[in-house]
Specification:
The protein has 381 residues and is of the alpha+beta class. The protein has three domains: 139 residues, no CATH class; 68 residues, 2-Layer Sandwich (TATA-Binding Protein); 101 residues, no CATH class. The protein contains seven helices and 26 strands. It is found in: Bacterial flagellum basal body.
């Protein structure tokens, strides 16, 4: 009886293991997919850029030079006049170096409400050497329409520093740029009623026909009706179903969690300045032969000094030239053959086997593209 139970337990373990394998299969496949919220944006849910001009005070002699920064001097005079102090007659005698003119930038998040706080960035525009220890005075931040949406003020936090002496100067980071955490208060809201929308656009961050169709199919399959249709490679038009009327937030919450597999074109991105090459998964090569080699001539001069023997009467000290010439004509390089339809990994392995570096690989890829054998788009940054 015990042996029989042991046999049944062993069979049950095998069945459970098989069920576990089948259960894990769709999970692993799902990891290759992306959520819609990670590859697309929804109409109306967007940031807004803000900018302002202000003054930072309290600098320890690292502010703007009043002789070279007239705008800083004029801004300080205007600020003091607003506070009831008239120094316009003495404007030429102002020599303070503890003040700096700065540009203040920030991003107004979507649906920010009046009274909420946002971070701001501060950047010097004059001759200031460092903003360390400074305090930003009240600075209105305006949008593209010229309206004030936030007001910034507070002590700045600098990520770098600068120290100098008579013979050496040490600079770490950028001491003329700083941030103020929660340094601005939102004063004006952007009027946008999301729940009142009857239709909206789902905008793809990387436009693609196939991805747009997959997103619309995933949305329609979830809703059980044809509510989404791709209008172009970068836009999917979504009609709000009746059951989500005046509850668009719930609709977007359900839709953004749906998973689709984004498609992408075969592309090779090249950064000439750094020698960086990024190749997509779908890059393919037709049958082509590749050879790479450069002629290198290296001339090294190592002159030697020849001296006469000790106590010699007629000898003189002279310099004897020694020249070493080395020629590398690339004779050790081999002709590599890449077959039709090779994958990205095979392409990289083939080029590496030729001893090709990133710089030479850029030239080879461009030559392969020119020959018509590279089935991908090359984008040079």
């Amino acid at each position: 009886m015990i042996k029989r139970l042991g046999k049944y337990a062993f069979q049950a373990a095998i069945i459970l293991a098989a069920l576990g394998i089948f259960a894990l299969a769709p999970i692993s496949a799902a990891h290759a997919q992306s959520r819609i919220k990670d590859i697309a944006d929804f109409e109306g849910v967007r940031d807004n850029m803000l900018v302002g001009y202000g003054l930072i005070v309290g600098l320890n002699g690292t502010g703007d030079d009043m002789k070279d920064a007239d705008f800083t001097r004029q801004s300080m005079v205007a600020m003091l006049e607003r506070l009831g102090i008239n120094v316009r007659d003495q404007i030429e005698n102002i020599k303070s170096d503890n003040i700096a003119a700065v540009m203040v930038t920030s991003t107004l998040p979507p649906f920010s409400r009046q009274g909420s706080k946002i971070d701001v960035s501060v950047s010097a525009i004059g001759t200031s050497e460092s903003l360390q220890g400074g305090t930003l005075l009240v600075t209105p931040l305006v949008g593209a329409d010229g309206e004030v949406y936030a007001v910034a003020q507070g002590p700045v936090a600098v990520g770098g520093f600068s120290a100098s002496g008579n013979a050496q100067t040490v600079v770490k980071g950028v001491p003329t740029a700083a941030r103020i955490a929660n340094g601005a208060i939102v004063e004006r809201e952007i009027d946008f009623n999301l729940n009142a929308m009857k239709s909206m656009s789902v905008v793809l961050r990387n436009p693609d026909f196939t991805t747009a169709r997959r997103i619309s199919n995933a949305i329609n399959a979830y809703l059980g009706e044809v509510a989404a249709r791709p209008s172009d490679p970068g836009t999917v038009r979504l009609t709000v179903p009746d059951r989500y009327n005046k509850n668009v937030v719930s609709l977007l919450t359900d839709i953004e969690q749906l998973r689709v597999e984004p498609d992408q074109i075969a592309r090779v991105v090249i950064d000439e300045s750094t020698g960086t090459i990024v190749m997509g998964e779908n890059v393919r090569i037709s049958r082509v032969a590749i050879a790479q080699g450069n002629l290198t001539i290296r001339v090294t001069e190592t002159p030697q000094v020849s001296q006469p023997s000790p106590f010699s009467q007629g000898g003189t000290t002279t310099t004897v030239p020694r020249t070493n010439v080395q020629v590398d004509d690339g004779s050790d390089k081999q002709l590599g053959l890449l077959d039709t339809g090779v994958s990205l990994q095979e392409l990289v392995n083939g080029l590496n086997s030729l001893g090709v570096g990133p710089r030479d690989m850029i030239t080879i890829l461009q030559a392969i593209k020119a020959s018509g054998a590279l089935q991908a788009e090359i984008e040079v940054m």
